[in-house]
Structures
1.
Amino acid sequence: MKKALKIIGISLGALIAILIILALYVNFNTPTYEIKKVAVNIPSPDSSTLAHGKRLTALMCAGCHLNNGTLEGKKMMEIPAMFGDIYAQNISSHPTKGIGRYTDEELVYFLRTGVKRNGEYSFIMSGHPLMSDRDLNAIIAFLRSDDPMMTASEKTQYPTKPSFFVKLLSNFVFKPHPFPEKEIITPPKSNQLAYGKYLADDLLGCFGCHSADFTKVDPMVPENTPGFYAGGSTILDPNDQSPVLSSNLTPHETGLKGWTLEQFSDAVKFGKRPDGNFMTAAMPPRPQLTDEELAAIWSYLQTIPAIDNEVVQARAQ
Ligand code: HEC
Ligand code: HEC
């Protein structure tokens, strides 16, 4: 009897020791990845490329990085605490504190794969592996321009502090995206469905927030993401940190079935709901989107599988 107790005691002790060692390992080990040399050729931009780059930067980067009129970065108040303290970094034109610390090659590699120039994978800005080369190059051309949005800021951002949960995922689950092997072409606007899918999934990443779980988003094969576009993941209202659930955008009664293109456009462009009320800042308005783009996204959303998921907000709207 005594012997059995002793064995159980020793086993338990060993188990606890292993768990402690594992926890320490996860806490202090940040995996790093090789930064492959990639051939990058950003053509010197004409004014229409710069305008395109500016619009994409406003749509895709400014929400997190814009502060005081420049892309100096800020603390992201909309990320739930379980992910840690997240700071969008200074990507203004400052030579050492801003985007100047990145070469074009490093920027392309980071924006594709999610691997930062220090070799760490950024779980929060995890990359756009399927964005077209044309769109990516236009963004980079804009980031190198002297537009007022790029005004050099001296601000030193706090580094992002991932939670233990994120460190655990970083050690065992998250992996950088593979760098594309050949050029990615923007689908022609004449192919409305392909164009809409490209915009919603590959460029703007609407499904990232509008699926079941942030940690299970699959940017390589978006439709493999659990609860694809059926909503339910929690974002915080950046104004008061109250939790807001993302909406079901699938063509189901509990989603957008019955909505018109006009109602959809008002919601995405201006944050206005069909009943006239405005959404929370957890879904920032996107006034930059054109009618053609919204119509394409809308057509595409009609074709995804309808999923029954009634999203019930915890707070009164
Ligand atoms: C969802 C919010 C969000 C969006 C959208 C976003 N970023 Fe970021 N960005 C961050 C955060 C947070 C960090 C810090 C990440 C980290 O340290 O892991 C960051 C870091 C960076 C960095 C620096 C990485 C480093 O080495 O510290 C660059 C460059 C960058 N972003 C560029 C961009 C560009 C260009 C876009 C638009 C295509 C963009 N970001 C869109 C949140 C965002
Ligand atoms: C940062 C996360 C996030 C991203 C990215 C995002 N959304 Fe949302 N969206 C939300 C949240 C949260 C709500 C609910 C807001 C509320 O109820 O106040 C919402 C609401 C909506 C609604 C209203 C639906 C309804 O039933 O009321 C539409 C339409 C919508 N989003 C479309 C889009 C489209 C299209 C994109 C891509 C261009 C997109 N969203 C990207 C978080 C996001």
2.
Amino acid sequence: MSHHFAGGKTMGLMKLLVLALVVFALLTLWRRIKAKSAARSKRAQRADTPQTMVKCSHCRVHVPEKKALRSPNGWYCCAEHRDTHNHE
Ligand SMILES: [Zn+2]
């Protein structure tokens, strides 16, 4: 009788533990999905803003206009390339 009662109590604890694990797993999953969709919407917003790409006149690498350096001879990816090209 007492053994049966103890067994039932253990089963209840096991059920609680499993339930807690399931809830924890669902919460973790939900958070991951939320974070992913947030990152995706951020990326989509960034993709929406038009970014002009310019070509470095020295190494022909394409760089965003914001990061590129302007010179009378054209666009450059870095100051080093701009100076090298202008000294030639
Ligand atoms: Zn370059």
